[in-house]
Design goal:
Length: 421
């Protein structure tokens, strides 16, 4: 670790001299200034690791004009950190080189639990997920679907039993420290040190990454401000509300400028106001270009934050796409919710489906407390229900509601369960 400060003390000019021994081209200097990079400033802590990656992205075509953008970027990065790969920061930077373009993270991966000499209870089967740089992916599924297992595999804390797994282009089983150095992880349960203050939690956590206090002190203040916790910086964790603790966990996980941010049900147990504050913080990360992968039980959260969604059940991917694509592909345009009574819902559903006519009803789902009837036009369903009631073929519903189809409907159709089952 003794040579780690060399990385921090390098100026942008010093690092670029490795790639351009004859001098940095004038056109490149102009491009770097355009993104706010000054050649005479130290690369860290003046600039975060993402800026370092941006430098490489701009420099690559100048250094290797005959290579593809991805190959040039990777070659240039290797040249610039030559000699520092064995330091924690060097390994972290090496990992960040793998971020250019979409990357397949899980390819037909399988996870089983071993019982004696046999594998039993397969919790993930043939799961393939790719995540692009700066994308926000939501992983949806009922309890026991394999979401948390996927998160543990991505974080390198749970090994796969088959398939391929790459994070930022690296297999975590082969080089776990390099992967974890570039990850930010927010677990389901808050795991803050309650004996420390909010500020101390960030500082101590940053030291696990080998980051010096000269970088961590201003970074901690920046993260506390980001999490709206500046006034609570010196408060013990036990004095913070549930929402404040959750924001502190997120702030702490950002201390190493992660290239990939994993959040396992980040808003579980929070009241609506705390959830919306947390959404705002996560949306700001999204605007900065941070890649996020999150699991959630809240459909509104998934629709607000996620570019793409992956629905998992029984360890397998049931569907994937944007929220709008999933609704369009798996649900009808409108839904009629009708309550006939718990002991009459199933019979009423069969009657409606049998008498609705061709093309009117897309699908019928019977829940314990209501019947969901999916159709292109809910007005047509209202007419059918009213006619059946008038004819005596159907009891009058206690309540009816017409609404647009939602992600909750998609999940119900794909898995046969609601998210809270």
């Amino acid at each position: 670790m003794s040579d780690t400060p060399l990385i921090f003390n390098h100026t942008v000019q010093g690092l670029l001299s490795r790639a351009f021994p004859q001098g940095v081209p004038a056109a490149l200097k102009q491009q770097l200034r355009g993104v706010g990079v000054e050649l005479d400033k130290p690369l860290l802590p003046a600039y975060p690791v993402q800026t370092w990656s941006r430098c490489i992205e701009l420099c690559a075509p100048f250094a290797f004009p005959n290579e593809s953008p991805q190959a040039a970027w990777f070659k240039l990065g290797e040249r610039m950190i030559d000699g520092y790969q064995e330091t924690m920061i060097g390994r972290a930077m090496f990992a960040s080189l793998r971020l250019l373009g979409p990357r397949r993270m899980l390819q037909r991966s399988r996870r089983s639990f071993r019982s004696g000499n046999n594998y039993t209870d397969v919790v993930l089967t043939d799961v393939s997920v790719s995540v692009g740089r700066g994308e926000v992916i939501g992983l949806l599924g009922p309890n026991g679907a394999g979401k948390s297992t996927t998160m543990r595999m991505l974080a390198g804390t749970s090994q796969r039993t088959a398939g391929e797994l790459t994070i930022l282009g690296i297999d975590p089983e082969e080089d776990g420290p390099a992967v974890r150095a570039r990850l930010g992880v927010v677990p389901q349960q808050d795991n803050l040190d309650e004996e420390l203050t909010a500020r101390e939690n960030i500082l101590i956590y940053g030291r696990y990454f080998g980051l010096p206090y000269s970088y961590l002190r201003p970074k901690a203040e920046e993260l506390l401000a980001f999490a709206q916790l500046t006034e609570k910086a010196d408060a013990k964790v036990t004095d913070l509300s549930g929402g404040m603790k959750r924001r502190l966990v997120i702030a702490r996980a950002l201390v190493n400028e992660p290239a990939l941010f994993l959040l396992d049900e980040p808003t579980t147990g929070l009241d609506p106001q705390a959830r919306h504050i947390l959404w705002d913080r996560l949306y700001r990360l999204k605007e900065r270009g941070t890649t996020l992968l999150l699991t959630t039980h809240h459909m509104d959260e998934a629709e607000q934050l996620c570019d793409r969604l992956v629905v998992v059940d029984g360890g397998e991917i049931m569907a994937a796409g944007t929220p709008a694509e999933l609704i369009r592909e798996h649900a009808s345009r409108e839904v009629l919710e009708a309550r006939f009574g718990a002991d009459r819902n199933e019979a009423a559903a069969r009657t409606v489906q049998a008498h609705a006519g061709d093309g009117v009803v897309h699908r019928v789902e019977v829940l314990p407390d209501r019947v969901l009837v999916y159709a292109r036009r809910a007005d047509d369903l209202h007419d059918v229900v009213q006619r059946l009631v008038d004819e005596g073929a159907l009891p009058a519903p206690v309540t009816t509601l017409t609404r647009r189809a939602s992600l909750e409907d998609v999940f119900l159709i794909l898995t046969g369960r609601t998210l809270v089952d």
